[in-house]
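Narrative summary of target 7.
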Amino acid sequence: MTGFLSDLVQYQGLFQMITVLGIGGTFQIGFQISTITYMSQHVKAFINETWLERYGYPIHQDNLLFLWSITVSIFGIGGLLGSSGSRYLTVKYGKKKCLLCNNLLMIVAASIMGCSKIAQSFEMILIGRFMCGISAGLCVPLHHQYVGEISPKKLRGFANSTSSFFWSLGKAVGQISGQRELLGSQSRWPMLMASCGLPALVQLVALPFFPESPPYLFMHKGDLEGCKKAIRQLWGEGHHQAEIDDIMKEKATMKNTKILSVLELMKEPAFRWQLYMIVILTATIQLSGINAIYFYTFEVLQAAGFDEKMISYMTLSLGLSELVAAVVCSSIIERLGRKVLLRGGYWIMGSLLAGITVTLSLQDWYFWMPYCSLCLIILFAVVFGVGPAGATVSVRVEIFKLSCRPPAFVISAILNWMGVFVIGTSFPFIVEKLKHFCFLIFMGVLFTSGIIIHLFLPETKGKSIVEITEEFDKLNFKKKCMPTTSNHVTDDYTFCTRL
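Modeled conformation, tokenized:
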């Protein structure tokens, strides 16, 4: 506890910046994902009313369902476009400027959606959701990279895992705000839709007081003094020479300061296994079954005999459980390491899915079986939050050098948004055919990914980027003798400069 309090005092600038980045980053996405569920009935009614007023007859049910599905899915299309352009914008303008401009886009989108009811235009909701998707697609990879680059080595895992905490916090706040007693009513849903502009406004006001990431300032701007100043502002006064040495070594091992394109990264043999890992981690998150769990929660609670109003509050407890789990992940990730949390999390989640499949099969036989299903579902969400949710983000940041990180996150984000679209469109048909046995597919994915992580992913805890790269070089160049890092370090850098 004493060590934590001393770190809290010394690194107060870092913790403040993590909070600002989180509020305008993954908090924003979690909030929008959860609130759209509570607005579904109100938005459908609004579309029907607008159609009736324009054309004099109610909209056909199939057309209404189509417009609502477009309203939901257009967010993912915007996210795919935003993430595709994140590499170019990051290289050209830097992460800080990109986030500030991105906040303006989100505020404009929130204003458009908030005024849709007054203007009697459901098209404004579509435009606003598309703009929100572009903003989300851009801010998520920027948030993950920014947090990883501003953190010292001993707090890097904690800092990276906070993105999953803010994601869960956003979902929980969205679930609370979406209750009928607050903003989820017939008259106040436009305010709920426009409230996504508040986190963007907070970040827009606060972020200018914080620096660009120290590695970016030194490696791509050549500003050593600016790098040192940023480190002092974020990490306080102290002995940070070892961290500065690591940044210098990383720059010395880079062929040049140019950030690779997506195609160049995919062709580069030195990062082949890093790409394999990022594809496996991203695909496993999409195929972990967490979305299916949320889908079945309502059905399980209905089978247990709870009324609809009570189910709404019990679903909120699932989101709060995930939030608590994210806090636990942030506190243990530096002790247990990323590999343990990923491997153990996958295998425990797979075992829980097997149990959930059994209890769902027997819930009509015993009156107490739905309660067992509910306990297993909550436990599944907790394990997901404690293990893979936070550790995945940390590993994705740590296994790539700065010159490769932007294109790597573009690849990861594109895979993620494509997964959201594919799973979202195919999952209802899978459920219709397989019912609760669909969990067996996710179980197989989790156990397989756990074995791959155990065999091939090196532990990144407490290691510099150069050391992690050397670990992957053993996989990328099994039959080749790779020169050590020291051979690449030129005499142009002096590693004994004082901060």
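DSSP finds 26 helices and no strands in the chain.
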